[in-house]
């Protein structure tokens, strides 16, 4: 009698859920599963709201279309894939998919790009620049023994992982019911699906997590974050690099808990010849501004109105905060110029360099508190990525851990049988919880420290301490942020 092929349902087609899908398909010769993946978004690019035909700009394979699209969830921004994340990604993907990774993570440009992190003070003075091994490509990052990373276009990585994946779109999971024989998964459109294993990869607000482990609590940092993707002219990038160096991930910390992160690649957005003759090269840059939420009370007392449905008011708010919190200097002027380039309204698609536009808004930084639950009960239902361990983005560990989850869970399920599925899930959850709980708390600690006001005299102590740490790290080639 032929054995029934077990069904695995994945709710959530983010980077973690898609990596897990590919890992199961890649290993089908060892253990075959019928894998179904559902996503609450209406489609891979959301809802198309404006299409144009006149070509003022065209972009290379990193940005293949120029329609202005409204996404259910913004998939853009740069992210850092580190050595353990790259290793897991390569292990999860079939060669046919992995061969397209350069579309999302182009090979580093030797002697031009430094794929690493640096920290400066409010004037742009270097405080910390951890050692980082330059790799030729993503495989070099994956095989690095020490700290190594590659700055990646998140939206393009998702596009690569979506290729030839039969995602069922517009299917929002709202709950499930576990039985002795399997799991019924319920969707908002009143449909339901049956499976042997359910994997919730549906983000920090996961309905699967809320049903499986309702005791897990969300931790609110009391920190506001504002993100933007923007096209920056070469002349401005040159001025920025002159002050803070050529690390592609630059963070600057102020005296009042304000933190600004700038992430970019030195790969020009390709333009048609007509535009090349008229303007200088532009680069895609991600801007992130964090500050203690309580500072908004002071803004309101200054009678400044901030409307999160009005991008212009949010941009003006950021610039107001920078002027108020940062000293008058060239570095502050550059920061203001960067934020001045963020579109204040839905841009004219004829002149917009990205395939999507996402209005800037204030958001709260949150994580899932691993200390709020002592024990997980393993069952046919498990969690992956932010659904299990959403963490502060400060250390860049969230995506890397989600991809690592995909690898670990897919390996554990190679031993799946109707009799021992619990032990497979338990093996995965034990490893995942040990690894990610430490990273959630480490990211939380770093976030709270960086966002704590220190004042002028406190900054002197902090800056000297960071410079000492920097000296030790580079002298002994030790990186606190790396993982073997």
TrEMBL record:
SUPFAM superfamilies noted in UniProt: FAD/NAD(P)-binding domain (SSF51905)
Keyword Transmembrane helix attached: yes
Keywords: FAD, Flavoprotein, Membrane, Monooxygenase, Oxidoreductase, Transmembrane, Transmembrane helix
Listed InterPro entries: FAD-bd, FAD/NAD-bd_sf
A molecular function GO annotation: FAD binding
Residue intervals passing through the bilayer: 7-25
Cited Gene3D superfamilies: FAD/NAD(P)-binding domain (3.50.50.60)
Record-annotated FAD-binding domain positions: 368-435
Superkingdom in the source lineage: Eukaryota
Keyword Acyltransferase among record annotations: no
Pfam entry (one): FAD_binding_3
Protein name: FAD-binding domain-containing protein
Organism: Rhizophagus irregularis (strain DAOM 197198w) (Glomus intraradices)
